[in-house]
Amino acid sequence: MESAIPKSLQCPRTRRRRIPDDYTPPYPSTVARYKSDLARVVMGYFGVQYRSSSGREAASLGHRIAHAFGSDGGPRHWDRAQYIDEAGFTNILSVGYWDDPSTFENWFGMHGAGWASGTNASTEVGTFCEVLKPAIERFETLFSSDVREGVACIAEGLSDLVQEHAYWGGARDRIPMSQTDDMAPVGAPRIVTTGLHRRVIPHENICLIRSGQDWAATAAEERRMYVEEVEPVLRAGMNFLRDDGLQIGCFANRYMAVVDASGAVTEKSFGMSWWRSLEALERWAESHPTHLAIFGAAMKYLSTMGPAAKLKLYHEVTVAASDEQHFEYFNCHPRTGMLRADELSEK
Amino acid sequence: MESAIPKSLQCPRTRRRRIPDDYTPPYPSTVARYKSDLARVVMGYFGVQYRSSSGREAASLGHRIAHAFGSDGGPRHWDRAQYIDEAGFTNILSVGYWDDPSTFENWFGMHGAGWASGTNASTEVGTFCEVLKPAIERFETLFSSDVREGVACIAEGLSDLVQEHAYWGGARDRIPMSQTDDMAPVGAPRIVTTGLHRRVIPHENICLIRSGQDWAATAAEERRMYVEEVEPVLRAGMNFLRDDGLQIGCFANRYMAVVDASGAVTEKSFGMSWWRSLEALERWAESHPTHLAIFGAAMKYLSTMGPAAKLKLYHEVTVAASDEQHFEYFNCHPRTGMLRADELSEK
């Protein structure tokens, strides 16, 4: 067993971990390990938002971003997911991960900058990009199996079993920066609107979580447990965050189905949500009935299934500095992603 | 709002609280406040254990301890509760609280020492006493209403609303000693048997929790919620700890009904459990499906009912030094209280 924080990023602590040194987690988990000289990654969410009547235009944009992702300097890994939002729009997000910020910047200049700037505008559909460029000290991952997802797909591999998980506060303890910093939020995001184009002036220490599940390999009783006992509870929590999250510091939540290259829905899903701070995310997780129900259902599932569980779980949590964020929306409805921050500033 | 740790017990920290300084709990709670010169309390659990056929002998012992409690030097507050244990014995516990250790010692010499020593022995029934004498730095309380129970009944009163609650780790943060000490356990309890008499050689930093509920004032939908949605979940968790707790560091758990002066069961109950350490209690609370279900049910209940809730909740958690403990059992079955520690040492 080893620390979730790799040796190369360990430093003299001014803040303690939540757990005693002899803590042993009740079940195994691993984290992504990156090449030792990796200083920063890029996580880019490129979205299309449309009414079903505009499916052809949206599909064309989907092809365009896929082509761009496949071009020189494109992400080392990407996937795609979709959901129907609370306003009835379909949203398709193409999510790319880069391990070299300068490669990303070159690529973005060529292929990404026009995506949501309005320069290549169609008013048939909305487009947006939400990009984080976090330093390696500012994010963490966690995996219940040896199948990687998300940002971990650009890592070198997975760690040995790690100690910092299966307790409240584990995500914080896995983020290297938590050794010396409370990662408290500073300021609040502001929206700048120019016609149909809107961008976000970021605040310090926004938090993003992508938290996913893959039940393709489950069968029989395990599948029944996931579908009947876990998923409905997860969905209820995701809907709460989507509809009522703002009051507790969640700007936006998307509970999405991963789609394959043909656009067909797979047996993978993930929630992604934007939070005012890691602390706000922790508070919801620790004390809100919707998340306690999710965590309880998952722990019951895992303890019933034991090592035989075929369900794969993972997540990644990032706390980004203000200069590591880029949010841009074109022709999107006002409850899209970080645009909801406006509802707070109007109060 | 104020800290759960009174000003007189605050000291320069070497350990941080779990929460940021601007944390605001989602619902109100208070803690007991004691007179400022109080250095130590005594919590004494005096038990009778019997088969139903020996009810008369047990009742006689119940009268005897009640009389002793009413004598000079008796506890400033006491109550009584009962349950049927996993071996089918009825156990009646008379629980006294003293705010002056020397008064207790004098009283104990006169009235308590013979209780479980075997000197006043009847082999019809079993008797036991489990006594903690914790320094004021070593325990905490929490109340959801202004009605006191347990050790708080010997306090001066209740605090203003406190900050350190409604998050995992709150109990630790409310114990004054946590400012500078991790309260880790040292050693393991050992049982010394002399005929029918058994006593426990304590280990350092044993943990006791008494956690109770009073639903007498609930009505209609609230009562239905407690009886149908909360209590069964609570009972399942209590039964888990009773039957399978040892593997996770819980020596014993008793889920008891409070009885009135006539011996009739009231609409109050509490669980009391002995733990190897506060950390073991925290681990169960934070990660075990049985407690997550309890916490989730309680949070759903409280958030549904809001300030209108008539259910009263409280608890007290103590971490006791080895020289603050006294455990003695006479003619009790081997799964009684701390005697189960023997099952660990046999492994």
Biggest sheet of chain A, strands in spatial order?
A: 6-13-10-12-11-3-4-2-5-14-9-8
Q: Specify the biggest β-sheet of chain A.
A: 12 strands, antiparallel
Q: How would you describe the shape of chain A?
A: globular
Rg over alpha carbons of chain A: 19 Å
Q: Share of helix among residues of chain A?
A: 25-40%
Quaternary structure state of the chains depicted: homodimer
Low-pLDDT regions of chain A: none
Largest interface: A-B, 25 and 25 residues
User: Class by helix and strand content of chain A?
Assistant: alpha+beta
Task: Kindly list the characteristics that best describe this protein.
homodimer; 347 residues; alpha+beta; 12-stranded antiparallel beta sheet; two-stranded antiparallel ribbon; 7 helices; 14 strands; globular
Give the topology, please.
Two copies of one chain form a homodimer.
Chain A lengths: L31 E2 L8 E9 L4 H16 L6 E8 L5 E9 L2 H12 L13 E7 L6 E5 L13 E2 L11 H5 L15 E5 L2 E5 L4 E9 L5 H25 L5 E10 L5 E11 L2 H10 L1 H17 L6 E9 L4 E6 L10 H5 L2
Antiparallel strand pairs in A: 1-7, 2-4, 2-5, 3-4, 3-11, 5-14, 6-13, 8-9, 9-14, 10-12, 10-13, 11-12
Question: Short description, anyone?
Answer:
Chain A has 347 residues and is of the alpha+beta class. Chain A contains seven helices and 14 strands.
Folded structure, characterized:
2 copies of one chain form a homodimer. By secondary structure, the first copy, chain A, is α+β, with helices and mostly antiparallel strands. Chain A has helices spanning 55-70, 101-112, 170-174, 220-244, 278-287, 289-305, 341-345; strands spanning 32-33, 42-50, 77-84, 90-98, 126-132, 139-143, 157-158, 190-194, 197-201, 206-214, 250-259, 265-275, 312-320, 325-330. In chain A, the strands form 2 sheets. The first copy, chain A, has a 12-stranded antiparallel sheet. The first copy, chain A, has a two-stranded antiparallel sheet with strand order 1-7. The first copy, chain A, starts with 31 loop residues before the first strand and ends with a helix. The A-B interface holds A 15-16, 18, 20, 23, 26, 166-169, 182, 184, 279, 283, 286-289, 292-293, 295-296, 299-300, 303 and B 15-16, 18, 20, 23, 26, 166-169, 182, 184, 279, 283, 286-289, 292-293, 295-296, 299-300, 303.
